[in-house]
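Look over this today:
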Amino acid sequence: MKLLLTDSGIKNQSIHKALIGMLGKPIEESNVLCIPTAGYGHPQGSPQGAYRFVSGREERCPMTGLGWKSVGVLELTALPSLNKERWMGWIEASDALLVNGGDALYLAHWMRESGLADLLPNLDDKLWVGLSAGSMVMTPRIGSDFVGWNPPGGGDEALGVVDFSIFPHLGADGCPWNTMENAEKWAAEIGGKAYATDIHTAFKVVNGTVEVVSEGNWKLLNS
């Protein structure tokens, strides 16, 4: 599966250009499903936040309001109660999945519980567009600093689809803890390959090749 792992959505022209290139067609010709699940697991998450994401009214993090041909909602907590072939058909009919931020471990849990995590290797014609936790869920670990919701087995392990971890929102308004000093401490705990990113940064991942797309600040902390 192609991945566009953003810090804070489609924030600039460079990330927008990467999105269109990975889609292989214009946004207005593309059908997408948005996944709001991660927002419910975060301590600061709310139904209002989920609505803003789904409706495209979250202007700080442009995702669903970009002018898509169609936008549907795929709520992962509902999938275990449905016939798998039914919701797989919804994904097959889409061009991309737009995945909200919130709590990465909560998202990882429901991706496993729903069966979506197992399906990822077979979605090679689809694009995953992550926002914050929607990007971090694809990493091996998120680090103890970002653990809010505790999974049944504990730990900070995400899905490990990519081989690097992400410290997001570097220097962002409303995130006073997200400093480079704290990012370096976080990276020392992570141990593996890790990046610190700001709101204008994303990762383009195609066939295992990783490209940083940025009009802001980012740093490779562990290689």
Summary: The mean pLDDT is 96.
